[in-house]
Amino acid sequence: MTENSIDATTPFTQLGGEPGVRALVDHFYDLMDLEPGFARLREVHGSTLDDARDKLFWFLCGWLGGPSHYIERFGHPRLRARHLPFAIGQVERDQWLACMFQAMEDRAVPAELKARLERSLFETADWMRNRPG
């Protein structure tokens, strides 16, 4: 999918295309790396965030209605299966969501789009839990 063939009403285009999604993802991981309130979430990610930054960027591009970079590289996302090695409980879910919601707020994502994404992201993040509590 090229930039020219992407529907202008998708969240992908509303966020500014690839540069906007990349900026959101980078800010998300910067917050995770720096804010003490996201320490438990940060621990789950290991010593470097470089791979996670790229994979989330590639995934979100397609999930938001843009190019399918993740699928082109890795096939179907199989999110839950790919995250089973990581302990994801309510704390990790809540920190991930809080970090992403703060990143969207800091990046001035329009309120209507932000609310829509928050609902979808909560459903996905809650489904990813694989540990109690």
TrEMBL record:
Cofactors: heme
Signal sequence range: none
Keyword field: Heme, Iron, Metal-binding, Transport
PROSITE patterns reported for this sequence: GLOBIN_FAM_2 (PS01213)
Residue ranges the record marks as coiled coil: none
InterPro entries xrefs: GlbO/GLB3-like, Globin-like_sf, Globin/Proto, Globin_bac-like_CS, Hemoglobin_trunc
Keyword Cell membrane recorded: no
Protein family per UniProt: Belongs to the truncated hemoglobin family. Group II subfamily.
Stated name of the protein: Group II truncated hemoglobin
